[in-house]
From TrEMBL:
Residues 229-459 form the Protein kinase domain. This is non-specific serine/threonine protein kinase. GO terms for molecular function: ATP binding; protein serine/threonine kinase activity. It is found in: Endoplasmic reticulum. It holds the Pfam family TPR_Sec16. It catalyses: L-threonyl-[protein] + ATP = O-phospho-L-threonyl-[protein] + ADP + H(+); L-seryl-[protein] + ATP = O-phospho-L-seryl-[protein] + ADP + H(+).
Amino acid sequence: MAEIATLLFKGYGCVRRKLGCVKNQEDWCLPLACLLCSAAAGDEHRKAMIQMGDDFGSRGWIYAAHICYVVAHLELGSRRRFQLIGCEWVLNYQSVLKEEMERTEVYEYVASLTSGIGQPRFQEFKYLYACDLAKAGLSARALDYCESIARTIFKFPRLISSYFIERVIMLCKELLRGKEEEEEEEEEVEWLLKLCRLHRAFSAPSSSFSVGSCSYESQEFQEELDSRYTVGELLGKGSFGTVYAGVRKADGKQVAIKYVTKAPEDSFPGAKPLEVALMEMVSKPPRCENVVELLEWFDVSTSFVLVLERPIPCMDLQKFRASNKNGQLSECLAREIMWQVVQAVRHCYNRRVLHGDIRSENILINTDTLEVKLIDFGCGELLSDNLYTSYAGHSSYIWSLGVLLVEMICGDICFHYVDRVIEMCSRVVSGECCHLISWCLKNPENRPTFDEILSHAWFTEEFQDTVQVRELE
């Protein structure tokens, strides 16, 4: 980002020398350049960049807004005025300039290399451009565009309509009918056959696709999974899935690969498990670094496969506590962990996701850095105003946080009587900590908000660890 800031400073200086003071440039160029040079954490930096872009866009400074979005690697179409780079409104395809298409293609390509982000909403423009190329007699270039579109569809099949896939297939077949070189046709048509299989799978009645059927997903996605990842040792097994260590072959990145057995209702083409949907919601930028990231997922045979980030070295909070005397952490250490857990839970709540199972086993600790990751959304649900009142969803979260804090500092104790728990905690923790525990566990209607927790005296005021004079019974 600092390199882009340097270009902005130089460009601003050049414009100023040639044209003198230019109001709009002063309003956006210098603030943007300064933000790019900021030393803020990566996710905070990106969030600030997107917010600045939204502000510029609301003022009608489209190029400035798009610079912010491009630097932040925002997905095309995620903003109403961010469909083509440098273009404010797209009334129809005929109004699109060649320069805007080419500029956006460059962004699509660079984003795919640097962040792996695809641009499914851009494929309609590419299809229309391919049609124009075909009309102009540039069949080879048009076919290249179709292949590029097809490869994006393979990555995001659930984000592309069956009707659009059919249109792409029809154009490809028309272009191929005009080709005379059989060898080239045979080489180029493999991706088209794959696209046709995908279209048939999505167009077939759901009843014809049982869990054990040999569908597009079970064949193609399994091949893609095997070609991109090496599956290693078993990391854990539960009622909702089995997790293995994995390595991404492209760059050696260590990941966690989770296999989730399909339910009968998940057997039709294009089905997306709730856990994946929830993780996509919490993984969209700007992310929270304390929530494990869903890198990608596959639909293979009888399972959904989730590829997740894997902090190394790490252990879950339950084992981390067990490695300490009496299974208890110091207040100072508990406070550092708790702060991050609250950030993670607040992020989920803001994304309308109820994790549903906040406990020590679902919190990973990087043992080198003490960075926290909230994992396992298998019990999660969507927070809906119709299903939950804001009080109910929020209250359950705060209760879970209170229980977690008690376990970290006081160890495993019985929770039959809240008053008894608080009285026991008061023997071994500071007054500030005891007050926060009481606030989280008592009267559900008066439980604190996430911001109130993070601004509580236990987090904001300096204190010395309370000496734990005796073990809890």
